[in-house]
Amino acid sequence: MRIKTIIAILFCFLFIQAGAQTKTELEEERTKTLEEIAYVDNMLKSTSQQKTAGINSLKILGNKVTLRENVIRGMGDEILLLNERIELNRIAIEMMENDIIALKEDYSRAIVNSYKSKKSNPDIIYILSAKDFNQGYKRLKYLQQVTKYRRNESEIIAELKVQVEITKEGLENDLARISDIKRKEEVQKGLLQNEQTKKQKMIRSLSSKEKQLKKELEEKKRIAKKLESEIARIIAEERKKSSVTNLTPEQKLIGENFVENKGRLPWPVERGIITNHFGVHQHPVLKYVTENNFGIEITSSGKTLARSIYKGEVTRIFAISGANMTVIIRHGKYLSVYNNLVNVKVKTGDKVDTKQELGEVFRDPGEGSMCIMKFMIFEEKYLDPEQWIAKI
Question: Are 67 and 32 in contact (CB under 8 A)?
Fold first, then answer.
């Protein structure tokens, strides 16, 4: 087999193997995203029973639109990957078929030359006509090598033919896969268009209630300010304590381990979607109005238990009017904050483990009995919790 063909086949094989891995990852990601869409669908069904949808319902629908766009984008990536693999397979097939033709021609010439040689000078005469035994032995070995070479040539031709058929089969499978993905992609695009239409309709409906929305936003700001004020007070108290006594070795170790697990910490609820992200964001309905979030909001459906994201000590538990109970847990230098809880199961001073139940997230009857928890992480300043908890 020619060197260029060997290199081409090896290159295609390695690309296909890498592509297969990426393709598997894309399929897994799409399956996971579709499961998340189904979960969001169930949440929206509970809010559809409400006569009027609220801001949180709009955010949930927006989350669903984003997930649907991710599915469609992933399908496009997979189609692109398959097209690249098809093109490489076609190049490999062309090179192998050209080599088969060249090998067949070489093999035919060798057979013809061998036939002519044997006709005029049979092998046995060729060996016996040697000057001495040593030359005769060398001629015998030469004939054996020629026979072996011919056999190898025929085996290579057969092997190439098999490889061509396998590659063609893979190419056909990829073409069929692309056709299937495109059909599914069209379905997803149709669903996305319907969801975008619903989202715009909901925005128009909510826009007519500007006064109510501003009132809700002001109440939300009041609760956030109260929560931030309480956290600031707790931190000031902790600093006074730390001026007398530093963190214990155990507290330092917990803090160090907390940092090491950044991006891998469990969610503060078993299942939910983020409906309010960290930082400054434009209000989803009110123009020229922004929200500054010092944490994230996670919305869940059904009974939802709040749980500690890491082991630590319960530093404070307090109530805020309109936002139920708040639990703060210290992890060395870090604080995790869980707001809007009821039926709290821990008390100040308790040592808690990772994923230990803290209480229930309040079910809001005005939002289709959904549970909305505000979650924050603090260390000298407010940190983006999404950078600390694991990606779903």
Answer: no
Cα atoms in the Cβ-side hemisphere of radius 13 Å centred on 284: 22
Domain range holding 269?
211-387
Do 184 and 139 lie in one domain? The reply is: yes
18 vs 42, higher pLDDT: 42
Comparing CA positions, the residue from 382, 381, 377 lying closest to residue 330 is: 377
What is the tens place of the pLDDT at every residue in 131-155? 565 655 565 555 556 555 555 666 6
Determine the pLDDT at residue 208. Answer: 75
Q: Provide the domain count of the chain.
A: 2
134 and 27 share a domain? Answer: yes
Residue 244, pLDDT score: 47
228-247 confidence digits (pLDDT tens): 888 778 777 766 665 445 66
Question: Is 336 contained in some domain?
Answer: yes
Torsion of CA 94, 98, 101, 104, to 10 degrees: -110
> Looking at residue 308, what is its pLDDT?
96
Residue 325: inside a domain: yes
Token digits of residue 1 = 């087999």
Residue 371 forms part of a structural domain: yes
Q: Which residues 6+ apart lie within 8 Å of 238 measured at CB?
A: 315, 330
Q: Model pTM?
A: 0.69
- Determine how β-strand 334-342 pairs with β-strand 370-379: antiparallel
Give the Cα separation of 315 and 238 in Å (integer): 9
pLDDT digits (tens, 9 = 90+) for 278-321: 988 777 777 777 778 889 999 988 889 999 999 999 988 998 88
Residues 199 and 238 in one domain: no
Please say whether the beta carbons of 125 and 139 come within 8 A. Answer: no
Domain end marker among 207, 226, 250: 207
Question: Cβ(88)–Cβ(12) under 8 Å?
Answer: yes
Final residue of a domain: which of 207, 224, 249? Answer: 207
Domain-located, residue 392: no
State the burial class of residue 89 (Cβ atoms within 10 Å of its Cβ: 0-12, 13-18, 19+): buried
Residues 190, 218, single domain; the answer is no
